[in-house]
Amino acid sequence: MLDTKSAPDVDTLTEAEAAEELARLAADIAHHDAAYHTLDAPEISDADYDALRRRNSAIEARFPELIRADSPSARVGGAVESGFSKLRHRVPMLSLDNAFGAEEFAEFCARAKRFLGRTEPLVFVAEPKIDGLSINLSYEHGRFVRGATRGDGTEGEDVTANLRTMKSVPDQLIGEAPAFIEVRGEVFMTKADFLTLNQTQAEAGSKIFANPRNAAAGSLRQLDTRITASRPLSLFAYAQGESSEPVAATHWDYLQRLTAWGFDVNPLSRRLENETDAEAFQNEIGLERSGLGYDIDGVVYKIDDLSLQRRLGFVGRAPRWAIAWKFPAEQATTVLREIRIQVGRTGALTPVAELEPVNVGGVLVARATLHNEDEIARKDIRVGDTVVLQRAGDVIPQIVSVVLERRPEDSTAFVFPAVCPACGSHAVRPPGEVVKRCTGGLICSAQLVERLIHFVSRTAFDIDGLGGKTIQEFYNEGWLHSPADIFKLPEREEVIATREGWGKLSARNLSRSIAARRTISLERFIYALGIRRIGESNAKLLARHYGSFANWRAQMLAARQIGSDERSELGSISGIGPTIAEELTDFFDEPRNIATLDEVAAELTIQDAARAESADSPVAGKTVVFTGTLETLTRPEAKARAESLGAKVTDSVSKKTDIVVVGADAGSKARKAAELGVRTMTEAEWRELVG
Ligand code: 5U1
User: Fold this and answer.
1) What HEC string does 237-297 produce?
2) Beta pairing class for 623-627 and 659-662
3) According to CATH, what is the number of the domain 623-690?
């Protein structure tokens, strides 16, 4: 994942870098959206996720012409996922503004009073803010008829059937109820239920949830109602949506009605006669927090008088009459046993702290992310250290600092590995990035499945009948160790035909699709290798520049030498540049990548690419000679640029020469050009000609 803290300033990005980063951000954000909303298994903290979105918007603001069709800005993070039908909330479910201290709370009160033009104190209802999942329940004549998640605030998922399985969602309201009413509240899981559920999940080899919030969301958003029914979900009701008639004059009275109708209302809720009572309440709940059976991340303060609430209304997506006063993150100290390096599916090496298990705000934590090499160095985190651990309402616990007084005497600084722990390939860290990556993309077990899925994907080899699930299955069988193994699958056709979901015909078709792809264009082949930053357009540039597989391979091997002509040539291909050149040479620096590359190439006929030739270039088809010392270009750069525009570059001047570019201290070639009447130009004139 992009590290937004150390990423280059948006103002310094070139257009090509911006386009590339937007593509990466779109993929990263979509991945994290799916992890959070669909899988309920977030991989990064909310703050890191927000930073990714902010960076995406900043780049789009600077390069509006680069905004992608799949731009994350066009999607709301909590957008509705497939699987459940959508339900539109009659009154939008808005979010709350936050206050992070007494001063910000006082500013909120002052704003509300200014708006209302009043000076007398405000009466509030204070309720602990549960870290769960907001839902909207609709009742007609007292009977529960529909229930939806918050979704994007306007439209949520219809989880009626699942909500019906919860004891704390009354099916029939007790006593008198309006013809229609929407009741809002928070579905949550207690800390104890969360721990028991995770234990059961672990024993069954099923998914482990990151925290009670995700466990609650994952349990409510089950397509199989029986699974939801088996999960211990609770609900506190706390707000109203649309109502066919008024049911109370104050929020406090409304909470009493909710209780009378049969809802659970948080028993810690309190009516505060004066806004100045809020700080004491905040401190009181803060002290109780870690002992509560459920996670809270603050207290919600709502102006009690509903007529004042109506007058205050909303600003943007949040009410002017309520605010969430957040608590600081919960902390604990523990001992760091080990720093383990995880290899992600894209080859990113991520350090993870293995901890002496410790209770942080009621949840047992045994692992924390260390983000990257720089983070470890900056905090000087060492194995054996006592560390301060923090769990915000967030996802992954973090190490805040080291308790230096408790550092063992023999401790040594952590040395980040230079090789991948999964495959032993060398690990590299491109300039300007914080993430170290394994270079053994084609051989690394941690990355192989992902690489193979890319290899057979529609824009690469496009092998029909070989999707991600099948690749994973065949990999699990031990049939796939490298891309070349894809082409050996037809040898297993008979066995494949006997597998569940397969038959003779589909196995035959798979063999045919594979055979049909044994001939491939050079650009698709280069793209299929999945080398970092070599997307479709860069693969095309490379293919058109180098023409054949053999030439590309030889040139890449030679380009590993920094300062070589081949390296300068590679870096000077318009659209490639030194960063991408380095990704390529890193790939070719790993001997096992080359062996794997050759192994798959041996299975294929790789078609040559049409050499780059720009029809409208003024030098296309011309023979050009460079002589003398060029000031703004190296000789290989000048040659590569001319060739990429379709010119032929030669060393000697003859009648066939069309242009001689004369640099400083040019000698005999310039004289010969004059004798033969060949057109000469200065370096500046050449640059102007070729743009
Ligand atoms: N306890 C509580 N949590 N909570 C969350 N009350 C409450 N109210 C909310 C939200 C989003 O919103 C209303 C103020 C509309």
Assistant:
1) EEEEEEECCCCCCEHHHHHHHHHHHCCCCCCCCEEECCHHHHHHHHHHHHHHHHHCCCCEE
2) parallel
3) 3.40.50.10190
pTM (whole model) above 0.70: no
Joined tokens for residue 653: 């001047």
Catalytically annotated residue among 5, 86, 129, 302: 129
pLDDT value of position 41: 67
What count of Cα atoms within 13 Å lies in the side-chain half-sphere of residue 185? 25
Mean pLDDT by 10 residues, the chain (691 residues): 68 79 83 68 71 79 70 51 79 89 96 94 97 95 95 91 95 95 97 90 76 90 90 96 95 98 98 97 92 92 96 88 91 94 87 91 82 92 95 72 95 95 91 87 88 92 90 92 96 95 94 96 95 89 91 95 87 79 92 94 92 67 86 76 77 87 86 90 87 70
129 is catalytic: yes
Q: List, by residue range, all CATH 1.10.150.20 domains of the chain.
A: 521-607
- As a CATH number, domain 521-607 is 1.10.150.20
Q: Residue 96: CB within 6 Å of ligand 1?
A: yes
Kindly state if the Cβ of 460 falls inside 6 Å of ligand 1.
no
Q: What are the start and end residues of each CATH 3.30.470.30 domain in the chain? A: 86-326
Residue ID of nearest Cα to ligand 1 atom 13:
239
The CATH code for residues 86-326 is 3.30.470.30
Please enumerate in sequence order all residues whose Cβ is within 8 A of that of 518, keeping only pairs 6 or more positions apart, or say none: 487, 603, 604, 605
Domain with CATH 3.40.50.10190 in the chain: 623-690
